[in-house]
Amino acid sequence: MLMAYDNNWNSADQIPQRAVEQGLINEFGSLDTDLGGDSSRYSVSASWYSDAWQWNVYALKAQMDLWSNFTYFLEDPINGDQFEQVDRRWVYGGELSHHWHHQLGELAVEHVVGLQLRADDIGEVGLYNTKQRARLNTVRNDAVQQGSAALFSQTRLQLNSDWNAHLGLRYDYFNVDVESNLADNSGSASDGIVSVKAGLSYQFLPNWQLYLNAGQGFHSNDARGATATLDPVTLDDIAPVDLLVRSNGAELGLRFFDYSAFNASLALWQLQVDSELLYVGDAGNNEPSRASKRYGIELAAYYWFSNNWSIDTELAITHSRFTEQSPDEGNYIDGALPVVLSMGLIYKADSPWQVSLRLRHFGKRTLDSFNLQRSGASTVVNAGYNYQFQQWQLALELLNMLDSKDSDIDYFYASRLPGEDQAGVEDRHSHPMEPRTVRFKLRYRF
What is the pTM of this model? Predict the structure, then answer.
């Protein structure tokens, strides 16, 4: 399979609420008209499988140039705070797995073992201060080599006709090498982590199943943060961050399945993370933060009215808090979503076409750790039409069909407009939802 695409876009920045209220711009305007960027990505992949073995390999080339300005004239009242982010990389990877079945007494056992490899050759990942897309100076410029390998195994056991169990074990190893324009931020780092997961399910009625899952996971931090010892702007000493960060989670669920008409599941879950990644508005990046805990309830339901009509609903309600206390911060997680709702209505004709109507709702989000600032809720309705003919696929989408004026995302931080006090003004910054839009796609599969 071969994929390629190239995009060039102009994007509205994160608009301060006061700029719209003062009539400087409308909600779709921009205080810096040079924002936007271009990107390209080309990839090739191949796969093969048999009854017992499966492998795939891939290679990808990607590049991006992105110009942003979140604080306008807060840091540089003369040239402004526009900056450019650059990324040039090749990615190579693959996976090999082997699976088999056997009987262990009266138990039916299924095993899967495998190996995953990935290498990122990043020739340039840079951050530059700019004015009208012309570079003024370099904040930091790095070349990064990052490799990862993972060994994994999973065993499923059918204990009897009602009880099933599974046990998974995984080891991940990361190694990074950073060559920075600041010698003190160059270096190497490596880390490994073992993750264990297990689950048990019980089918207590013909169409009802109760299940319990628990397991460990992780997220990786930016390779540059794992080797940096100097802040590239202030040149103050900083401590490197952990390359891999542990998470622990569990869920208890109830599932009803009637494949002819109705499927539904209800789950209670919790997730603990040793360090959150939080968005920093005045820097335009993410930084590691405190440990956190989330728990919530999720509902998913799918109903088929007939062979042609179906409806689906997914609802998630989440409680999110930092568990590590800070004397200067509250315990709310900035930007965490308390409510997410997705609904869809689909008509699939007997001929190879279908139409769909989808609704997405995000609840009000807290914008600061004390929950003093909150975003509005956002709701959008999209419609789609798809037609498949042999290797050809035609898609027509009507996005934001009801022309909602909600924001896609909101942040709260300080920025400075021309003429404002040098210290800046704390304000809500929003990216508006795109107005009603028609999008056409034509795809051919080899």
Answer: 0.86
